[in-house]
Amino acid sequence: MTSSYREAGVDIRLEADGVAALVRELTHRRAGPYAPVGGTGHFAGLIEFGEHVLALATDGVGTKMMVADAVGDWSTVGIDCIAMNVNDLYVMNIEPVAFVDYIATERVDPAQMAELGRGLNEGARLANLSIVGGETATLAGLVNGLDLAGTVLGVQRRDRVITGEACRPGDVVIGLPSSGVHSNGLSLARRIAEAHGGYGQPFGTSTLGRELLTPTRIYSEVLGIAERHEVHGMCHITGGGLLNLARLTDLGFSIDSPLPVPPVFAWLQEQGGVPEDEMYRTFNMGMGFVLVVPANEAGPMTREVPGAQVVGRCTAEPGIRLRGVPVE
Predict the structure, then answer these.
(1) Structural domains of the chain, ranges and CATH numbers in brackets
(2) CB within 8 A of 219, min separation 6: which ones?
(3) Whole-structure pTM over 0.85, yes or no?
């Protein structure tokens, strides 16, 4: 039985090596105004724009689309597409303003496209952005089924961008709950689901397939949080799980009191025989977003933000640890 993300077809370390190989070749930089700000490696790329920066991020829904195909419901994956993009801006305290989508399909189905449109529109409403364009490509022979991705444009005053550089040992980590599996780890989740009863089996008040299709949470509220509180760093927990925290700083993080684990993750772990450390490397495990803040902000923030909880702290010792055990 598949018990790891790598065995399910996704090797996080190989992906990191592949991205590094790609980035090494991207040496050209624009001359003149509107040059890039900073380097690569964070969640979004920045472009100078006077007192502001423009930000670009791109992402897709991934193999969650295959769950939508199996269930026959594509009405919510558009929310996931928006969420996976805008959350890459929120972690840098950047407001998303515009979005373009890219749909690749082996055959255009107008009814299916309408469902995608409903989800994209709802995601745009939740994130308060405009969908200003897009592209649909019919790629029979290259694409089997349907793929949905997009790119988001954001803007922020340059002095309001949060990169994680301000993180200090002793800062606390505030976790915000996820809405479910979100749009990461589905290669492993699908393998487990298909081997243990399929998507139509009862789960909670619905079915397992519907549970896996729960849309990714859009964390738009963090813009207001960063306006009212001192925030040193932010991160959303996507592919790579807790290892995403390493993108903020060379310092370390100790997650000692993780948020409660929702039933879907417990089911996946038990049915798939997945070790706990692999679960926290692959899934969000109920914590979809974290904020790194000074210790004196912990009380006010957890009282203000529903579901927020102190889950750990920033440490001088590098690396990510879960209850004292390194996550690698």
Answers:
(1) 37-160 (3.30.1330.10), 172-327 (3.90.650.10)
(2) 87, 90, 176, 236, 288, 289
(3) yes
